Amino acid sequence: MKSYISFIILMCVSFQLKASFELPGSGTVIYPSGLKQEFSFGFKWDKQNKLFTIGDEQYPMDQMPDSYSIALTLAGDDQAVFVQEFANGYISEFEWRLGPHVIKLEKKRLEYPVRGDYILWIDQYNYYLKNGNPSVKIVFNKDGINYIIPSGITKDNGRRR
Fold it and tell me: How, if at all, do strands 81-82 and 21-23 pair?
Protein backbone atom coordinates (compact mmCIF):
# COMPACT_ATOMS: atom_id res chain seq x y z
CA MET A 1 0.00 0.00 0.00
CA LYS A 2 2.85 2.41 0.89
CA SER A 3 4.54 1.78 -2.46
CA TYR A 4 1.25 2.49 -4.27
CA ILE A 5 0.88 5.85 -2.48
CA SER A 6 4.54 6.67 -3.16
CA PHE A 7 3.98 5.87 -6.84
CA ILE A 8 0.94 8.20 -7.01
CA ILE A 9 2.88 11.02 -5.31
CA LEU A 10 5.84 10.48 -7.65
CA MET A 11 3.55 10.59 -10.70
CA CYS A 12 1.99 13.87 -9.53
CA VAL A 13 5.41 15.44 -8.96
CA SER A 14 6.66 14.17 -12.34
CA PHE A 15 3.61 15.65 -14.08
CA GLN A 16 4.16 19.00 -12.36
CA LEU A 17 7.84 19.05 -13.32
CA LYS A 18 7.16 18.00 -16.90
CA ALA A 19 4.79 20.92 -17.39
CA SER A 20 7.53 23.39 -16.39
CA PHE A 21 10.56 24.36 -18.48
CA GLU A 22 13.64 26.55 -18.48
CA LEU A 23 15.15 27.98 -21.67
CA PRO A 24 18.42 29.68 -20.86
CA GLY A 25 19.30 32.40 -23.33
CA SER A 26 22.55 34.23 -23.89
CA GLY A 27 24.13 36.14 -26.68
CA THR A 28 26.28 38.91 -28.02
CA VAL A 29 25.36 42.24 -29.58
CA ILE A 30 27.68 44.29 -31.76
CA TYR A 31 27.16 48.05 -31.75
CA PRO A 32 27.78 50.22 -34.84
CA SER A 33 31.05 51.32 -33.19
CA GLY A 34 32.26 47.69 -33.22
CA LEU A 35 31.91 47.28 -29.45
CA LYS A 36 30.71 43.78 -28.46
CA GLN A 37 28.58 43.19 -25.38
CA GLU A 38 27.22 39.99 -23.85
CA PHE A 39 23.59 39.72 -22.78
CA SER A 40 21.36 37.19 -21.06
CA PHE A 41 17.76 36.69 -22.12
CA GLY A 42 15.81 33.46 -21.69
CA PHE A 43 12.45 32.12 -20.58
CA LYS A 44 11.23 29.96 -17.73
CA TRP A 45 7.79 28.58 -16.88
CA ASP A 46 7.26 27.47 -13.29
CA LYS A 47 3.85 25.81 -13.37
CA GLN A 48 3.77 25.00 -9.68
CA ASN A 49 4.24 28.65 -8.65
CA LYS A 50 2.48 30.02 -11.75
CA LEU A 51 5.43 32.26 -12.68
CA PHE A 52 6.70 33.03 -16.16
CA THR A 53 10.18 34.51 -16.39
CA ILE A 54 11.12 36.69 -19.35
CA GLY A 55 14.76 37.73 -19.16
CA ASP A 56 15.32 38.90 -15.58
CA GLU A 57 11.66 39.65 -14.83
CA GLN A 58 9.09 37.28 -13.34
CA TYR A 59 5.37 37.60 -14.00
CA PRO A 60 2.55 35.79 -12.15
CA MET A 61 0.28 34.04 -14.67
CA ASP A 62 -2.51 31.51 -14.38
CA GLN A 63 -1.19 29.66 -17.41
CA MET A 64 1.87 29.64 -19.60
CA PRO A 65 1.70 32.19 -22.45
CA ASP A 66 1.36 30.81 -25.97
CA SER A 67 4.21 32.88 -27.39
CA TYR A 68 6.58 35.81 -27.07
CA SER A 69 7.69 38.13 -29.89
CA ILE A 70 10.99 39.92 -30.22
CA ALA A 71 10.66 43.08 -32.34
CA LEU A 72 13.55 44.27 -34.50
CA THR A 73 13.16 47.97 -35.35
CA LEU A 74 15.35 49.32 -38.12
CA ALA A 75 16.80 52.83 -37.85
CA GLY A 76 15.57 55.32 -40.44
CA ASP A 77 18.60 54.71 -42.66
CA ASP A 78 18.34 50.88 -42.28
CA GLN A 79 21.93 50.75 -41.00
CA ALA A 80 21.21 49.71 -37.41
CA VAL A 81 18.57 47.80 -35.46
CA PHE A 82 16.97 48.30 -32.06
CA VAL A 83 16.08 45.17 -30.08
CA GLN A 84 14.66 46.22 -26.70
CA GLU A 85 15.37 42.88 -25.02
CA PHE A 86 19.07 42.81 -25.94
CA ALA A 87 20.45 46.38 -25.72
CA ASN A 88 19.67 49.95 -24.68
CA GLY A 89 20.52 51.43 -28.07
CA TYR A 90 20.89 50.61 -31.74
CA ILE A 91 23.05 47.64 -32.67
CA SER A 92 24.51 46.35 -35.91
CA GLU A 93 24.30 42.60 -35.26
CA PHE A 94 23.42 40.02 -32.65
CA GLU A 95 23.68 36.31 -31.99
CA TRP A 96 21.25 34.78 -29.48
CA ARG A 97 21.38 31.21 -28.23
CA LEU A 98 18.00 30.20 -26.79
CA GLY A 99 18.00 26.64 -25.51
CA PRO A 100 18.97 24.52 -28.54
CA HIS A 101 18.22 27.32 -31.04
CA VAL A 102 20.43 30.03 -32.53
CA ILE A 103 18.95 33.28 -33.83
CA LYS A 104 21.39 35.62 -35.48
CA LEU A 105 21.15 38.97 -37.26
CA GLU A 106 24.16 39.44 -39.50
CA LYS A 107 25.09 42.49 -41.54
CA LYS A 108 26.63 41.45 -44.84
CA ARG A 109 26.75 43.16 -48.20
CA LEU A 110 25.47 40.75 -50.81
CA GLU A 111 25.62 40.74 -54.61
CA TYR A 112 21.93 41.66 -54.70
CA PRO A 113 20.33 44.35 -52.54
CA VAL A 114 18.48 43.38 -49.37
CA ARG A 115 17.05 45.77 -46.78
CA GLY A 116 19.82 47.10 -44.55
CA ASP A 117 22.20 44.41 -45.84
CA TYR A 118 20.81 42.18 -43.08
CA ILE A 119 20.49 38.42 -43.00
CA LEU A 120 18.37 36.92 -40.22
CA TRP A 121 19.32 33.35 -39.36
CA ILE A 122 16.98 31.08 -37.41
CA ASP A 123 18.90 27.91 -36.78
CA GLN A 124 20.22 26.94 -40.23
CA TYR A 125 17.72 28.94 -42.34
CA ASN A 126 18.27 32.49 -43.54
CA TYR A 127 15.84 35.29 -44.24
CA TYR A 128 15.99 38.91 -45.42
CA LEU A 129 14.23 41.83 -43.81
CA LYS A 130 11.19 42.96 -45.77
CA ASN A 131 9.89 45.84 -43.65
CA GLY A 132 11.23 48.20 -41.00
CA ASN A 133 9.76 46.29 -38.06
CA PRO A 134 10.24 42.55 -38.47
CA SER A 135 9.79 40.23 -35.51
CA VAL A 136 10.71 36.78 -34.30
CA LYS A 137 7.91 34.89 -32.56
CA ILE A 138 8.79 32.11 -30.12
CA VAL A 139 5.85 29.74 -29.71
CA PHE A 140 5.91 27.67 -26.52
CA ASN A 141 4.69 24.21 -25.61
CA LYS A 142 4.85 22.37 -22.29
CA ASP A 143 8.46 21.32 -22.92
CA GLY A 144 9.77 24.72 -24.04
CA ILE A 145 9.82 25.89 -27.65
CA ASN A 146 7.34 24.45 -30.12
CA TYR A 147 8.65 26.51 -33.05
CA ILE A 148 10.13 29.88 -34.00
CA ILE A 149 8.61 31.91 -36.81
CA PRO A 150 9.73 35.27 -38.22
CA SER A 151 7.44 37.90 -39.73
CA GLY A 152 8.21 40.94 -41.87
CA ILE A 153 10.88 38.97 -43.72
CA THR A 154 11.47 37.25 -47.04
CA LYS A 155 12.77 33.72 -47.06
CA ASP A 156 15.84 33.04 -49.17
CA ASN A 157 14.41 29.83 -50.65
CA GLY A 158 15.60 27.86 -47.66
CA ARG A 159 19.27 28.54 -48.23
CA ARG A 160 21.31 26.90 -45.52
CA ARG A 161 24.66 27.73 -43.99
Answer: unpaired
